Amino acid sequence: MSSLPHQVLITFLLFFSSLFLHSSQQTLISPISKDDSTKLYTLLIYLKTPLQPSKLHLDLGSFLPYYDCARHYKSSSYKPLPGNSTLCKDLNTGISVSCDDRPVGPDCFRDDTCGFVPQNPVTRKTAVGAILTDKFALPTTKKPGLPGPVTELLLTCTFPDPNSRIYKGLAKGSNGLAALGRFNYSLPAQLSRAFSSPLIFAVCLPGSSTAPGLALFNTPGPYYFSPTINLSKSLIYTPLIPGPGPTVFEQYKSPDYYLGLTSIKVNSFVVPLNKTLLDIDENGKGGVKISTYTPYTLLQTSIFKALVNAFVKESAKLNLTVTAAVKPFSVCYAADKITSTRVGPGVPTVDLVLQSDKVIWRIYGSNSMVRVDDKWCLGFVDGGLNPRTSIVIGGHQLEDNLLQFDLVRERLGFSSSLLVYSTTCANFDSTKN
């Protein structure tokens, strides 16, 4: 009888070891590319039967993935989602669609099909589409360049749109949109259910169009980058807070990632702000969120002016003189007057103080400045007097920063610039992960 606990322990360890090995094999990775023409990003997935590589516009705030089925869809495995199905009722779209004016295909079904209204995150234009499922895969960290285990993806197939309004303004080369928002059927949420893994994913946007970044799904880490740096140990965490109701599908909660910003500093100088703008009011206006729909951070006019004034004053201490601006930027400096450092142009740092003075997202020159010909310009843009969101942290400020979206604990983990560690998003080491 004395051997029984030993046998139980062995069985217990073998069981959990097998779970760990299975989980590690399902760590999914997808390259992220930057489009120079729009300054936006695409995510590579494998879709359809046979599996085909497809570039989707990456958005950190949309509900459901969607695809241009009218022009780019050939597959033997797609299935429409019936309008009376349990899944359609769970989606609660309130829309059922059918068509009889075109041949039956992924964008046209005779029977009532569950419908959706996808929105272009850049232009805010909408369209109508039918929801379907199809085969889907992403590479694993074991084989980064090849599709891994195949599952099914729920997505919206958009109807023919002669003006292509749902696709105008998206990253060039994209045939649809990868929705990474806070929604039960976003891409990360679907992957979490498919592989019974925690709803945690990480994004590392590339700072260049010549070297890809990446998205990692189904893993809380570790995240190794060359040269042998485990960045999961360097992440700083701040709570994700609820956003206002969306303008489309008001029955849903906001799919956007909102943060509790308390102040902004330039070097050690606290920028004077109207702090009521940092909170979301009863009309759903205000607040601070992360987004990839804008290349550069947008700031409500008074916040923008206060930040610019503080930055110019602190830059003057470095003997930097403002020169003629280049749209859409308001402050530029001669490039030959600015020193080069490991973390980009040698300019004052911009600190986003989140939650408390101990939780600081530091923005160095590589993320605060944009090179325009022979100038370095401050890469923040006036978002207007009365925007829906007071501060939208845009793509340029996120590049070469590792962001972990932990929706189990409702928190964001951020690294600040990877250049501090002498690495970039392109240096992810899949052999160690």
From TrEMBL:
Keyword Secreted: yes
Transmembrane segments: none
Pfam families reported in the protein's UniProt record: TAXi_C (PF14541), TAXi_N (PF14543)
Domain Peptidase A1 residue range list: 41-415
InterPro entries membership: Aspartic_peptidase_A1, PEPTIDASE_A1, Peptidase_aspartic_dom_sf, TAXi_C, TAXi_N, Xylanase_inhibitor_I-like
GO BP terms, alphabetized: proteolysis
N-terminal signal peptide: 1-26
Primary location: secreted
Keywords of the record: Secreted, Signal
Cited CDD domains: xylanase_inhibitor_I_like
GO-annotated cellular components: extracellular region
GO function term, MF aspect, one: aspartic-type endopeptidase activity
UniProt keyword Transmembrane, yes or no: no
Locations listed in the record: Secreted, Extracellular space
Family to which the UniProt record says this protein belongs: Belongs to the peptidase A1 family.
Protein name, entry field: Peptidase A1 domain-containing protein
Source species taxonomy: Eukaryota, Viridiplantae, Streptophyta, Embryophyta, Tracheophyta
